[in-house]
Amino acid sequence: MAKLLIDNITSSCSLSDYKSYGGYTALEKALKLKPEEIVAEVQKSGLRGRGGAGFPTGMKWSFIAKPEGVPRHLVCNADESEPGTFKDRYLMQHKPHILVEGMIISSYALGANTSYIYIRGEMMFQFHILQNAIDEAYAAGLLGKNILNSGFNLDLHVHCGGGAYICGEETALIESLEGKRGNPRIKPPFPAVKGVWDRPTVVNNVETIAAVVPIINMGGEAYAKIGVGKSTGTKLISASGHINKPGVYEIELGVPVEEFIYSENYCGGIKGGRKLKAVVAGGSSVPILPAELILKTAKGEPRLMTYESLSEGGFATGTMLGSGGFIVMDESTSIVKNLFNFSRFYHHESCGQCSPCREGTMWMEKILRKFLEGRGTSADIDLLWDVQGKIEGKTICPLGDAAAWPVASAIRHFRAEFEEYVKNPQNIKDVRHYYRLNNLQEL
Amino acid sequence: MANKKIEFSPEALELVHRIIKRYPEGKQKSAILPILHIAQAEFDGWLSAPVMDYVASILKILPIEVYEVATFYSMFNLKPVGKCLIEVCRTGPCWLMGAEDVVKYIEKKLNIKEGETTKDGMFTLKTVECLAACGSAPMMQVGETYHENLTLEKVDSILQDYKSKGELVTHWDKKHIATNYTNLHE
Q: How far is the alpha carbon of B146 from chain A, nearest alpha carbon, in Å?
């Protein structure tokens, strides 16, 4: 099992430690190549964006406009906020230099001389870790002017956000980096043409940029041999919920979902030996699947941890790999309660620009609250279905879709549970739903 | 607060000017989010209108440009808060793992409701959306520190610790202003 990103995790995240196990050798190698050769290696690797969308990274890089005399920028999206996802925080905290090294190589490939890491404001602890790593890199001549005598100059800055899920959307992130509210922009123009300060910009996720380091070290072709089909390389999976061993796991894409949930190498099975009820496989935005559909596709084939296998069957019976935020729910979970929680999240985080999302997320939360209070009706289930359908695809950015999909999938796969609460409203009040911390009756 | 002159400490002001230089000339507005964090650390943990006006004057932008940003992002407090702002994650995985219990327990222990501040001005309780620590749920954030894998006993001792220190805790920790960076490149 190859670990390319989170191998050699030690208690220290210093430059000397990172160098002691081969850190910055990819940079030395990269600076001897031409920028377009690096882009070609990344294209060969088949690397796809690790933030959630899964767009081929090499192709994204090839789109960057190169007008004469206009600076270009690389911005790292470290605004990790998708519920269920915590891999980037882990990586930055324990191996900040792999991100710094990836940023230098990627900036060189794109011809950017000033780059930024946009980290969410809540991760202030990791912000300062990154700042220390950057300071170390400057002192060692790995940043600044004429890096390792290559003639390439790069200034790298870490920038903190202020608390807004929407800033993980790349054009909202750009607005935020410009010092504005995080309202997504209408595309086109795409950031590759007009990004931050109207300059050509590439925005990549933390894990994507870190993956450039092993790709340069081992070569794009060797990287592409890991994984299955178009799902190449390794992926960080954030595992949470009712499992014995929550945490960040680096998997070779292609591990069967069943193995991932039950193997001692990964999640270690369901807590307390209870039964699996459902999984949200790629962060809160992707469709929830019941146990039978997450373990096997509708065709009865084992479901694998790949972009393709998880989406097999479309939204009718499949889901998405997304950001790799793998949330496991046991048989005690109330899908309706959990959905209320997600819908409240999207309502809270909608930027308010587009009416379908601003109003729709509010209504979905309201209707779900009715169920929670035992006032839900059959008509409310249909209304909920109707509202989500009027958000999806009708907004500037994908937050609208992200808010609609969990609702649609919960009704699609768990309609009976909604109906049960309509018939027996008391049940939802009694449902324990979550893991109790203590048996404190007075709470 | 009323008669206190609103001005960054010399260390903070130096830091602010170094941060501004990280962005292209004429694009100094980009520095607004880090500077608002530093402002909260310098001015009692929240942003009053005069503090926001002061930030506007440093960035050479209109006060409204600061207000519209400060009101958009959830980390900026537009009303006074306790010295210690407790932010309990309430989203998905934390909820599955008992975040509701944590909130109820703190409410009971501090005798306040979510969103309120204790009478002695020590604690404010807030629930927040996913803080990207789902693998160690339930969790809460105080300043830059994540307190993870919470149990009710753990919550007790954490609150006791903050109370006995009695200091203002902010996201941009004061120690990162006082010591400054060895090498904050501009």
A: 9
